[in-house]
């Protein structure tokens, strides 16, 4: 219920993770249709880049203004920091306070004067401004670091490398907010070089008990995790896509014209295959390099047909092998019979 600087930093990290989730799923999903030349209905989704900019903008971001308050001379308090937020962020649509121009809670006593509210992608969160300046400073005086570095214990010395006299830096140490912002930027840069897979965990109840399903709690998590928008984009588009070559290689045994070998472009082979199977045209689309299947049941049908065909092919192979084995045995027996008969007639 009481959110301070720590929760603000955590929620900032969640916003950045949600942003990369949007870029790598929803945005990439729609951009792939454009690249492949697939016609479909564009789905609008909320991009939380505007919220990230509110927090991390180098000039007008909340973290930048917090650092400015911590570094400027004169009397600095949490109230002066809130006053600066009210001046700079007053018109921002995702920022609210008792003094902000866009606030709809001017007469709402649930929003005290010492608080501000941010409308995150997962909902609105109210922050108590008390302690923001002190927690952001997070100062460890230089003489204390030097004293700890002189300790005989190797672990303590390793925890305070800034106390090393050879590495004395007269510059003011970075604030907690700027350090966390740099760490988040490094994390985002690392994630963008990878191919991440997202696992969204849903908590069914607050009691940590089995066989209890709280529908309201689950719906709340689904909505705030952004899963509804992801499902909307998926349902409006295509549930499955695959390059033509592996698709033809996997399902070519379902059509006599493509089995066992198809001579020609892979896309032409896939077109012949789907026409032969009688799949409705509205269930798939041909992209520049991939086949797009709209409904999962179409894919399930292909897999069932493939499974049945593999069983038929296995039966055919077994039948041919047994026939070959029996014929080979028969020919050997016939040859032996001829040899025995010829020797018998010689001495008869």
From TrEMBL:
Residues 184-206 are annotated as: Actin-binding. GO terms for biological process: actin filament organization; actin filament-based movement; endocytosis. It comes from the Eukaryota. Coiled coil: none annotated. GO terms for cellular component: brush border; cytoplasm; microvillus; myosin complex; plasma membrane. Gene3D superfamilies: 1.20.5.4820, 1.20.58.530, Kinesin motor domain. Keywords: Actin-binding, ATP-binding, Motor protein, Myosin, Nucleotide-binding. This is MYO1B protein. It comes from Hylia prasina.
């Amino acid at each position: 219920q009481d959110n301070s600087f720590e929760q603000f930093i955590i929620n900032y990290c969640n916003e950045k993770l949600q942003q990369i989730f949007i870029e790598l799923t929803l945005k990439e999903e729609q951009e792939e249709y454009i690249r492949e030349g697939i016609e479909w209905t564009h789905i609008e989704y909320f991009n939380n880049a505007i919220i990230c900019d509110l927090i991390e903008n180098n000039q007008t971001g909340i973290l930048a203004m917090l650092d400015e308050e911590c570094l400027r001379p004169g009397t600095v308090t949490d109230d002066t920091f809130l006053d600066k937020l009210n001046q700079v962020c007053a018109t921002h649509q995702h920022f609210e306070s008792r003094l902000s121009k866009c606030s709809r809670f001017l007469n709402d006593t649930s929003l005290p004067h010492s608080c501000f509210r941010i409308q995150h992608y997962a909902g609105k969160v109210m922050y108590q401004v008390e302690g923001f300046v002190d927690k952001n400073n997070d100062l460890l005086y230089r003489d204390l670091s030097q004293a700890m570095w002189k300790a005989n214990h190797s672990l303590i010395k390793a925890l305070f490398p800034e106390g090393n006299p050879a590495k004395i830096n007269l510059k003011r140490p970075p604030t907690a907010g700027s350090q966390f912002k740099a760490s988040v930027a490094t994390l985002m840069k690392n994630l963008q070089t990878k191919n991440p897979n997202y696992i969204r965990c849903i908590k069914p109840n607050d009691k940590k008990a089995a066989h209890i399903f709280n529908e309201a709690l689950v719906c709340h998590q689904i909505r705030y995790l952004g899963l509804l928008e992801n499902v909307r984009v998926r349902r409006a588009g295509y549930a499955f896509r695959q390059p033509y070559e592996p698709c033809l290689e996997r399902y070519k045994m379902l059509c006599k014209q493509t089995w066992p070998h198809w001579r020609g472009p892979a896309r032409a082979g896939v077109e012949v295959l789907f026409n032969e199977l009688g799949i409705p045209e509205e269930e798939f689309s041909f992209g520049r390099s991939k086949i797009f299947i709209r409904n999962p049941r179409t894919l399930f049908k292909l897999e069932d047909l493939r499974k049945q065909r593999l069983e038929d092919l296995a039966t055919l192979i077994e039948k041919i092998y047994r026939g070959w084995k029996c014929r080979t045995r028969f020919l050997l027996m016939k040859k032996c019979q001829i040899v025995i008969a010829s020797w018998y007639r010689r001495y008869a």
